[in-house]
Amino acid sequence: MLRAVGRGIRRQIVRRSSGVRLTSGAPRIPWLCPSPYVYHKPIRWSSSNARAISLPSETPPKHTDRSYSTAAAALELEDIDTSAIFPPLRRDAAPYSIPIEPLEPLDPSQLLVFEPPAAPEEKCMRKSTAGVSSDKAEVLATFNACIKVGVLARAQLMLEQITKNCIEERDTVVLVDAHNIFLKALLDQYSDSGNLSELKVFFMWFENKMRVEYSIKGDATTFALLLKGSLNIPAAEASKRYLAEYINLWRYSGRNIVDVLESAVLNNEEVLKIAKICHLRIGELSATCREMMKEQRKSRLEPPILAVPDAKPTPVKGPGLAAVKSSLRSLIDPDHMPFQEYDINLNDKEFQIERQKLLEEHAFDSARERWKRDFESLSERGVIKQDAEINSLLWEWHQALVPLIHEELKRVQHAEESGTKAAGAVDRCFYGPFMRVIEPEKLAAITIIELLRTHTLNGVGAGLKASRAVLQLGREVELEYQAQEVAKQRGEGFFANMSKAELETIFRDRSAFRNLISKSKSASDLDFEEIPEWPNTVKVKLGGVLISMLIHVARIPVEAAVPGLTEGTESSEKIVQHLPAFQHCYEYQRGRKLGVVKLHPELVKRLGTDDLNFTAIGKSLPMVVRPLPWTDWDEGGYFYTRSKVVRIRESVEQRQYVKAAAERGHLDHLFAGLDVLGRTAWRINRRVFDVVLEVWNQEKAFAKIPALNPDINFPLEPEPNADPKVRWEWAREMKRVNTARKNNHSTRCDVNFKVEIARAFLFEEFYFPHNIDFRGRAYPIPPNLNHIGNDLSRGLLMFSEAKEVGETGLRWMKIHLANLAGYDKASFSQRVAFTEENIENIHDSAENPLTGNRWWLKSDDPWQLLASCFALNEALSLNNPHEYKCHIPVAQDGTCNGLQHYAALGGDVAGARQVNLEPSDLPQDVYTGVAELVKASVELDAKRGLPAAVALKDLVTRKVVKQTVMTNVYGVTFIGARNQIENQLKCIESLDQKDIPALSLYLTKKVFDSIQEMFTGASAIQDWLVTCAKRISRSVRPNQLEHLKDPKTGEDSVHFMTSVVWTTPLRLPVVQPYRQVASAAISTNLQTVYINDPYVIDKVDSRKQMTAFPPNFIHSLDASHMLLSALNCDASGLTFASVHDSFWTHPSDVDEMNRILRDSFVALHGKDIIENLKAEFEERYKGFRTLVKVIANTPCGKRIKLARRNYAIENLGRPKLTAVEDLQWELKRWALMQSHDHDDRKIAAEMVTPSVILEKYGGLKVNELAENTGKLGLSVNDYGSPSLGDQSGDEGSIVDQEDILGPAEESDDGYEESAPLDEDMVLGGMEEGSRMLGTAGDEDIDLDDASTKKRSRARKELDEDGNTIPRDNGSAKGTLKPKQAHIATLNVWVELKFPDLPPKGLFDVNLLRKSEYFFS
Amino acid sequence: MTAASIFRRSADESIAHLRSLISPYALSRRSKLPPSLVNWQICDPIMDKLNLLAYKKTTIIDMNPNLGVFSAALHERLQPKQHILLEPEEFYGDRMREFQKTYKNSWYIPLDGYDWNTYNQLFSDNPPPPPWPDNFPKPRIQATTSPDDVNSDLLFVGHMGKSEKSERLIAQFINCCALGTWIQQYGRVRFLLWVPDSIKDRYLPRSIASRARPAASAEAVVDITEVASSNVIRTGRGFQKLPEINPDNVEVEEKRLTSIKPQERKVKIKKKLVIRQKMVEDEIKKLVAELCPGLTPTTRGRPKKLPSKEQKKLEETRARVRELVEAIRNEEPILPASIPCKERVTVLNRCDEIRRRFEHKKGAEEEAEKIP
DNA sequence: GGATTCTCTACCGACAATATCATTAGGTATTAA
DNA sequence: CGAATACCTAATGATATAAGTAATAGAGAATCA
Fold it and tell me: Which portions of the sequence form the region Disordered (chain B) (predicted)?
């Protein structure tokens, strides 16, 4: 069995490995070198890979990898119970034996490393000649599309361009693949037509083009095709000759014919035929080959499709297509009760799979059918048009759109054939092939649905951004195409024809499933490794055409009164006009032009009121069966709809890393975790749904559902001649009201969608496939309605499975209810008491949700509360409430989860207590804690009579500081925090509004100080992270110097291209995508659209890299924690769902889940995360050089200046040194130091570069300009060596030349010289922390930190030099205001090293195992 | 040379010196700050041209007077009842204080003319808060009997920069004219503003094509005229509105070319040399065609071969013209003397035109008179 | 390379400005040698 | 055929657009000489 698997996958993996161009793999075509994108180091195959390539003849792989080996063993040995294909619980047979521990950090040699280009790449030149672009991705996609629709002439054009590109880029893999695909297409064409001249073309292509013109030798597949072609030659003699010729040619290049015969292109009969004709001895066929033949006859595991590649789809088994369709009617037709017509067993998985397939494949068809039905029934009834359901309108649009598309396709064909350069013709050549791959009817439906959907999701009131709409539509079309392709690959019977055992396997054993998929890929047809993605150019152009056609066609009946005879009156007569439903125009936003597609107000109104009836629900719906397990970076979840496991933002870099990680099996735990999330079954809470529906139809504002026509208080317009300021304030208020109204409407549309989806799935059990963002946080893929949505979404959803609550469960239900009611800060027993006190209210809410006293509406989360009320009420109405079977999930939320991780990392005792890491009788609340601290400090100030403090004395509340504390984790800046606090203070009436800016400024300082005081260690870590990110993002790779030439100017220049990359405990490589964006213009029928060009890797945005790193890192941790917990919960048989830092399970399982959460957290932090991070950084950025700022006005700085000057004069004949030259100097020394030659090293030792001088004077710790200290305080540079010096004694005197040039052993001399100790400056980390605690508020010391002092010291020196004249800062402002004392700095290239880790606090994570309120 | 001397308009205060008083950044092309008039000699011709006779005992609101050169001239000419200098930049503080000392009835208020509050404080009935001096006499402006009359009790002058702020402010001014709000409630109050070309072009477009919304809407409510502009050649299409004041005198905030040493310029121009080669060639061709009629090709293709003598003449002419055109392009102040007299005339006749082609654009101000 | 001014200001899911005119580069047609 | 020229077009770069910024402060990036 395994052998069979092995054969299928072998080719796959080999191709794949060359697909990422490993340096270790020899390029297939000798004259081509590997591409510049290479792994930093040769790969060591991980065990999982080794298993994957193991040859069939070998014994099964060693059980190095626990999870897989057990699964594989299970596959063979287990006696599978056919009745339990998808057991709801797998407690007994845990499918993945995941260690509870997070993974060990990667061996350094296993780190994934990709080098970004040395300089910003040039924007893709889209030089197009005769409609052939030179953009590789674009041509590739076009080529693919042309092949799919059989337009070979055009495909050939594309192929020629691809060949050019590939040869330039030395991309041999794609090159050969493309030619193979083309050959295959030619051959297929011949088989269809039987026209001999076509066969000739086939051979000519290989002989003339490939071999002669391009010198492509071809791979096994090429030759397999050639053999196949030769077989097809009718004349037996010729056929034989050709065969012999090609076999010889192949052998001549020293390769084994077996490889060719094993190719999936040739089926067994053909192989045998060839063997016979050419007298290949059977012995020459490899064991694999023979084995293969035997197996194919009696294969049990392999679906038939694998045995016969061209197999016709087998008829659907089971209840039949009609039944499946009928069962989905409920999704289309709200009046239809499913499952009534057929006797269907809902547990029949094959049936369910068919349904899912249908759902994905025919979502658009279904919508169309529904429109048509509505339209027809309407005509029968003869209803007046403008009252018609929106669906019939859509049907009209659709009917009008289809002929237009046909017409356009004709024009495309004309354009392609004529080859004119007429306006539009060139564009048509671009998008034409892509337009053809999907049938016009479907295309029309997608257009209509997507435009409406995009409007509800992102619309700005009556319009939506054209650029957005166009791209979105293009993307959706692509998605549909991909689904089509996947469906084709997997064939009709891919799932349906599997035996139950195989079906079982899919969900049990990832690797087995993976093999199955790759087999289906290789067997179905010759194809690219992955379906080429459509470039944005294509998507946008295609979207543009479709939308402009829809705009042209779509009309909406609008009723209007005919004006009366006299002016200003209306006659009672009404007329109906058919007005354009959409309109394209431009708006100005802050003086910038913005293309907008506007919807007619009537249409907008309809979208907010009409039943959408599945009108506009496209793809990405919840699934009716369990999502497929993730097997690759783009394989998993939906059956046919392709989704990526990581939501990469069109970043090539991220994709590289994720792909490589997936390939090496690093992501398997992550996949497993996501699978767990995906297999949580949900259903709609019917009772809540009914209430929602009722409320919805009332069209009034209720429980966060906005009213259809909200009463809006438009501010009174002031007199036209009022003061401009007054008028302006009015205008601003109007703007605010208007945006509020727009928001109101779009929320309403959103609710409409949610309700509609809920209605469609009312009788279903469904699942959310999940993927992750680039940090690893998981999100359900279906938009609109999912459990991380708003309160309404959450209220509508519940677990499909019900579990008996038992005693503890009931208690948790009560606690949960109290939480939802806002009573979540008390102890558990108090919360229970709260619920019990409110039992009447709960009863009332449940019994009469709308007519009673509506207690549930008071909550911030009314719908979830209502759901809880229903459940609890029901439970309590039982004789024995403990027997209640509960569907409602109970949520456990971390108290400021980010801070929890920070506190654990930093070992902050006080902080840990505040975020409930420490056991406590009562839950702690950080916000209150910080507020108290601030309050104390303010009161102290008030006593001293500080006016701001006096004003604020009694106003410091939890509410005021909450947002700031929360966002602190996200790196909020001082100003940002000040704004938050200002907004809070504005709500306090007793304050004079005029004073608020000043007060908020004061208070913000206090809040920042308090946070820092409470989370000392955390703050230090935050700063450490920032410093690391800063150094990384301002660093260059050593070999980057070879490509210093700026492509644009041709001059030498240094570009910072390094982004921060790290690996999470679950081995996800995280790449921060922040770079400067290059935007590209794409002209469409509608307008020119400007989008970011994803293909260029540009300079890093170092600010963003810096500010985002700490939150991203923490998020990557909490994501790991979540997935770890998910795996463990699953292993214990719990149903599990999560919203990042909120974890859900059945009431009865909450205790168990909490235990798991705590254990996972401890396990995660049990490893020294930060230490590992540092180690990874050191490995990853080994030898990099970074540019640091050094205070210039010190002996050290002066020496550097002098040395630079001397060097420049000596070597360049001028006194100045450019940054590049400086770097080259440093690198020269560095290179010499690495040399094996003793003399070289000696020379290096004698070189005195700026970095050497810096080192001599105590290095960065002493001399670096302290920065990024504003946020949480301490500069990282202040840890470690207490050698902070005041050089006043040396002021102005430049150290002797000999001293610098002297032998290296004098180094401590320089050190000493620069470091006469100044008591004030000696601040160790711990001392610092404790001192601050003790002296907070003491004016003399005043929380000043060493870095500030360093700054002030530098300033002082400046003053002494007389460079800056202190000015009184009057009311001057603007650019000419007196300058701040400016600190002169020098830039020095130093080796990229990372600061010492801040000392960890004393908190022991293990304590938290007993902390009840850790998550609550 | 004291700061005060300029206010007495002694001729010994050179323009160069005045320029040196401005912060270097404000002089740089990147600056969007309100620029400052330094050529005090043109103030009189400008005011001669403006009919200011009606402005007796008037109140002047002076926004961003900066160095105060224009303000001083205006003050001397009008002898206003009150001259309010709204200058928020502390940088000019000393000079403003000097101004206040020199000219009676002038009040230096370090507030921003952009802020509505400034005017609210000025016109409200309450005594104005601190930055305004205690003894500040409030202007009592009488509204004209008809809102269509020009109010000669009030005159608004100022320097506007290229900043977004300035642009917005002018848009607001016009809006106020339309609504009759703000100081326009007192009747039609005239504005006398120095504005950058970019702003002027918006309201006084140089071609039909560039006449966009702001121009149209402004025309509906205000009269805008260009009073004086620098002798800078304007780029782009559209007609060239020639300065109406003696162009040689209107030297506004421009860095003199003479201050740049030749070597430095070469470095700076280097890019242009490469970039605008085509333009130079085109100009040369045109000029050579003019200078050597009959020798230049008239047909499309390859030119006929000329007798070597004529060929040589052509080459020489071309070389000289090249020198000349490149000089113009390089903004060299003195044209090379290598060209014979007759030709020189021809070339110089077209000099302006060529200059315009090379758009020697500097930060220049326009003075626009607005008569609401 | 240094001083000065400009920009931006909380993470993620989530994603975006365009038309127009001036100028040049580069290809094609045209002509004469 | 190559050579020299004009003409034409696609590609690139610069600029305008709207029109209250409101006021905080500090670090990093960009820009100019």
Answer: 295-315
Which nucleotide C1' is nearest A1101 CA?
Answer: D29
The predicted pLDDT at position A613 comes to 60
Residues 1362-1401 of A with CB under 7 A from strand D: 1373
Nearest to A708 by CA among A611, A602, A608: A608
Task: Please state whether A924 falls in left (phi above 0), alpha (psi between -120 and 50) or beta.
Answer: beta
Report B:151-190 residues touching A (Cβ under 8 A): 172, 175-176, 179-182, 185
CB under 8 Å to A1231, separation ≥6 — which residues? none
Among A1215, A1210, A1219, smallest CA distance to A1041 is for A1219
- In sequence order, what are the beta bridge partners of B85? B62, B108
Catalytic-residue membership of A1349: no
What is the distance in angstroms between the Cα of A561 and the nearest Cα belonging to chain B? 33
List strands edge to edge, sheet with A1142-1145.
A890-893, A1142-1145, A1137-1138
Q: Distance between alpha carbon B172 and the CA centroid of its chain, in Å?
A: 21
What ipTM was predicted for this assembly?
Answer: 0.83
**Cβ of residue A296 near strand D, that is under 7 Å?**
no
Tokens of A1061: 């990359």
DSSP for A282-327 reads: GGGS-HHHHHHHHHHHH-SSS-HHHHSTTPPPPPP-TT-HHHHHHH
Residues ≥6 apart with Cβ < 8 Å to A1342: none
* Contacting residues for A244 by C-beta, under 8 A, at least 6 apart: A278
Q: Which nucleotides of D are covered by protein (CB under 7 A)?
A: 2-7, 10-12, 15-33
Instruction: Kindly report the pTM of this predicted structure.
Output: 0.81
Sites in chain A below the pLDDT cut of 50: 1-99, 123-131, 296-319, 334, 337-341, 1046-1049, 1267-1380
Q: How far apart are CA B354 and CA B360, in angstroms?
A: 10
Average pLDDT value for residue range B116-131:
86
At A899, the amino acid letter reads: L
Say if residues A965 and A931 touch (Cβ distance below 8 Å).
no
Beta-carbon contacts of A517 under 8 Å, excluding residues fewer than 6 positions away, are A490, A631, A632, A635
Q: How far is the CA of B295 from the C1' of D3 (A)?
A: 19
Dist CA A1413 CA A1409 (whole Å): 10
Query: Torsions phi, psi of B110, nearest 5?
Result: -80, 55
Task: Count Cα atoms within 13 angstroms, Cβ side, for A34.
Answer: 17
Q: In A, which residues are within 8 Å of B182 by CB distance?
A: 723-724
Asked if residue A1133 lies in contact with residue A89, where contact means CB atoms within 8 angstroms, the answer is: yes
The CB density around residue A1126, as the number of other CB atoms within 10 Å, is: 27
What 8-state DSSP symbol labels residue A58? S
CB A941 within 8 A of CB A953: no
Query: A176: number of CA atoms within 13 Å, CB side?
Result: 22
